[in-house]
Design brief:
Blueprint lengths: L2 H12 L5 H12 L2 H16 L11 H10 L8 H46 L8 E2 L3 H7 L19 E10 L2 E10 L2 E9 L9 E5 L2 E8 L2 E7 L3 H20 L1
Antiparallel strand pairs: 1-2, 2-3, 3-4, 4-7, 5-6, 6-7
Helix pairs in contact: 1-2, 1-3
């Protein structure tokens, strides 16, 4: 494990987000690296110094008085109007609850997908887990997936643009097979996961930061794509833009 990899995982270790295997790997690296050991100690001191009590803030009594001045009491409300309001409000509430339920389910599924992609990315950074087919040739990587997954993942060479193709592997996201296409930007690894179906992802790339990693999700031509790396946002967005342009050009040729 390198110091760059440990630096990312140390934060997850402090927050209790690593499984036992990854936790052991980090602790083994820290045991032999003074720099990372100092960083871990400093983060633990910061974590221990954070207060766990007194984080609640009670609303002042003046807030209740202000609400009561605005909202009429039941005694002053016409009963018939109130009942009509309940009927209309109930229908609207049911519709709103259904909409909220759909949104929550979609958000939960998105969280699962992103979380499993991060886990797959972390696994790939361990020794001998990065690629199943090691090649900088897109014409070697792309056909390797034939018969291994029920899709033809777009594989393009972006070496001239500063993103070197280093291979691919078969992975699993949300219980389904996914093609992982691996690029390198200097010493940073970019995992691009490609799966069948858009999964509700927008065709416009959506950026987010999850567990310290930069993640961009989008859909294209019936495929769900997710790029993840620890490079900065600008470079990851540049990668997605260049990849998308090159993949569409390849489809047209």
């Amino acid at each position: 494990m390198t110091c760059d990899e440990a630096e990312v995982l140390i934060h997850a270790l402090i927050d209790g987000e690593l499984d036992a295997g990854h936790a052991r790997d980090v602790e083994a690296h820290v045991a032999g690296c003074a720099r990372c050991a100092a960083q871990l100690a400093a983060l633990r001191d910061l974590h221990d110094a954070m207060p766990v009590q007194g984080l609640r803030h009670a609303a002042p009594a003046s807030l209740r008085a202000s609400i009561e001045r605005v909202v009429p009491s039941p005694a002053k409300t016409d009963r018939r109007a109130l009942l009509k309001g309940f009927v209309a409000g109930g229908a609207l509430s049911a519709l709103a609850a259904a909409s909220v339920g759909i949104v929550i389910l979609r958000q939960d599924r998105d969280s699962i997908v992103v979380g499993e992609a991060i886990s797959a990315h972390l696994r790939s950074l361990q020794a001998d887990h990065l690629t199943d087919v090691l090649s900088t040739d897109q014409h070697t990587v792309k056909p390797w997936f034939n018969g291994r997954i029920d899709l033809a993942p777009p594989v393009v060479d972006l070496t001239a643009q500063g993103f070197t193709l280093i291979g691919g592997r078969l992975d699993f996201i949300d219980g389904k097979p996914a093609a992982a296409i691996v690029y390198r930007r200097r010493v940073h690894v970019i995992n691009l996961f490609v799966r069948q179906g858009a999964d509700g992802a927008s065709s416009t790339p959506q950026f987010e930061v999850v567990q310290g990693f930069n993640v961009i999700r989008w859909s294209d031509n019936g495929l769900a794509l997710l790029a993840i790396s620890d490079i900065n946002r600008e470079e990851l967005e540049e990668f997605v833009a260049r990849f998308t342009a090159a993949a569409r050009l390849a489809q047209q040729s």
